[in-house]
Write a structure and sequence with these properties.
The protein is mostly beta strands and 122 residues long. It has no helices and 11 strands.
Length: 122
């Protein structure tokens, strides 16, 4: 089955940078939507950034100008570049894909990674 594995999280000082990666493995016919979500302690999970197959991108207001979402289809890898990090960015970050799997390309499914912890210290 399709699996997503996030990496790149860790502890960083305020003002620093991190790049999160999401590697998709398994049989994939088409990736249609790539998104990053995050969930901070005591808060709801929120959409951070999203890119569609048409190339349109959306960002949460809180991260505009600081975060950049991108994808490398040849490597089946998605990225979230995070610059000028703030303590309020501390959260577990999740990769989310809407894709058509190779075993049944007529259907679209949503897949989630296990999450990676990002902690920003002041």
């Amino acid at each position: 089955q399709v699996k997503l594995v996030e990496s790149g999280g860790g502890l960083v000082q305020a003002g620093g940078s991190l790049r999160l990666s999401c590697l998709a493995s398994g049989s994939i016919f088409s990736i249609n939507v790539v998104a990053w979500y995050r969930q901070a302690p005591g808060k709801q999970r929120e959409l951070v950034a999203r890119i569609t197959s048409g190339g349109n991108t959306d960002y949460a207001d809180s991260v505009k100008g600081r975060f950049t979402i991108s994808e490398d289809n040849a490597k089946n890898t998605m990225y979230l570049q995070m610059n000028s990090l703030k303590p309020e960015d501390t959260a577990v970050y999740y990769c989310n894909l809407y894709l058509q799997p190779g075993h049944d390309s007529t259907r679209q499914y949503s897949y989630w990674g296990q999450g990676t912890q990002v902690t920003v210290s002041s």
